[in-house]
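Friendly challenge for the regulars: who can give me the structure tokens for this chain first? No prize, just bragging rights.
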Amino acid sequence: MGETIFALDIGTRSVTGIILESLDNSFTVIDYYTKEHTERSMRDGQIHNVVAVAQVIQEVKEKLEEKADTIFTKTCVAAAGRSLKTVVASASITLHHQPITDTEVIKHIELTAVQNAQQTLAKQEKNNDYSNYYCVGYSVLNYKLDQTQIGSLIDQSGKEAAVEIIATFLPKVVVESLLAALKRADLDMEALTLEPIAAIHVLIPESMRRLNVALVDIGAGTSDIAITDRGTVVAYGMVPVAGDEITEAISDHYLLDFPEAEKTKRAIVNDGGFTVEDILGFESVITEEALAQDIAKTVDSLAESIAAEIVQLNAKVPRAVMLVGGGSLTPNLTTVLADKLDLPHNRVAIRGINAIPHLHHDNIPTGPDFVTPIGIAIAAKENPVHYVSVTVNKQVIRLFEMKQLTIGDCLVQAGIKLNKLYGKPGLATIVTVNGKFVTLPGSFGEAPQIFLNDNPANVDDFIQDSDEIKFVAGADGLPIQTTLMELVGEAPSMTVFYNKQPYKLETDIYVNGIVRNSNYVIRDGDIITWKQTKTIRTFLHERNLKTNLIAKPFTILMNNQPITVSAGTTKILVNNEEAALDNILKKSDRIEVMPAKQPTVYDLVLQLDKKASNKITVTFNGEKVIMTQPLVKITRKEGSLRFEDPIQHQDVLKMEERKLEPFIFQDVFRYVHVDLSQANGKFKLLKNNKPSSFDDKIISGDRLEISWGD
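First reply, four minutes later:
Bragging rights claimed.
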């Protein structure tokens, strides 16, 4: 003998009671009974008249008790899926390129997103009080790092981490009105589920919920919609049109009152035809084909409403659509709905109780109108929803247990601002590094201290009824403590050679104009600079090498024009090439200094690229003679200077250029001494062994002679 399950499907048009027996993972329908409401005590799945609904429940209960010869004191029921609210929301935190290493931080972001969803719902309902709703679950849609979707946030580094969730909420009034109606019928709520979840539970197993499928429960007053995707139920919705609109269309077309039109609709669907008598007394036979033509516009309107809601909820056309509920049997509805969604006709189908696995049902109709009642019985038993009461910092909180609840769920329902519990990040330190602003973030704030029944706990720890939760807000983070070494790393250095000796050039780091070592702790507002290169000037100055090089160059005034005399100025060679003091040194440069000397007139003439003199070499009486003829004349204060004479810094000089004149024989006597004591007789002048004269021109290499004789 298995376990007996008593379930009620409290709908807009009627209440259906069903008795199942559960044994070895299979279910058997023992009995069922349906009773319509005598007045409009239910509207869109919400109880509006508790007393009237309780009376119908009492009748259904007593009828089944009589047939089963037992007394029922508790029952499984479902809350209308159209009462559910689904909200997509997100939350984020700033990382400052510090990776998240603790799953507690991620859970904190998720719960903050749930609270954002609550606030969004409160604004939509225009009462700004989300305490009127139970959060019955949420699913993570995606994690994002710097706006890019990512699988996990653990150990990821970036600027911002974010999470997007879809949360589901149920109004408290729905549950409380159910409880009130059951209590009046002497019943306790054994278990609770949601109508669309009930149908999905028995028709779409969890392994198939990764598929994007829409399930539509078409009742009398409303068509409830639930959509699966990514392994979960991602959206719920409702359109306020269903089977009653079809009945009204039949009533209008065939002149029938509403109950007779409802009877006609069912008879034609079940038997293929029906004979009716209108209010004028005329009889007519209505076939299913004729009915389909006569109500085509209404069917098209119903399909259009359902299709539009599905697309709005899903943001796209789903892969398939399942129809349950009595209204799903409306002629041509599956075909028209498939066309509206641009789906193949075989992707929209009616599902009856034959599609429920492990169900024995010999004494109940197999149509789609009993899928939800049976689903309520099975789902409420296998996945029941209970109330749980806990205290959060001495505040009593009641939760709707759609899943195994955690401390985080309690904090959300209590309205605790999770972003207030988590310590704030430490103040950032802002410094200037070589003219650019750099932000150094402080440390993360600490997680709150949470205690479950006085024991340390985490937000994702599970809770039980009557648990006591306490929390203490986490400490704020601290400003960053960073040294120069941690900020800029090891300062670069290089080696150069000065007069063949190696010198290592270190990089000096200045903080607010003062040289600091690598252990200096950075403060907010510090101005940090460093130079990775040095000039020849700073290199020589810092090492007191040839400091006289910085003296002014050796200059004179020549013909009223300033001239720098290079021979009187120290020269600097880098890699054997002349360089300036402000040249930048590079790795392995070889520096040499050529000291200045006392410049002469000749140095000046050479620098001016002037030819100082015309020079020839001759022999006179067998001896070599060098003869020169100045081509420039340098004077200082009207006094002539020789080429070997020194010049002084800031001398005022004049220069005259002379025309090149040829040498003549007689010029040689200015360079030689002729011993006239031995002269006797007449003299002869010879040039290259030939007679010559005093004014004869001579050139370099000529052989000159003078001799005496007869």
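The chain has a mean pLDDT of 83. The chain has 15 helices and 46 strands. Your move, everyone else.
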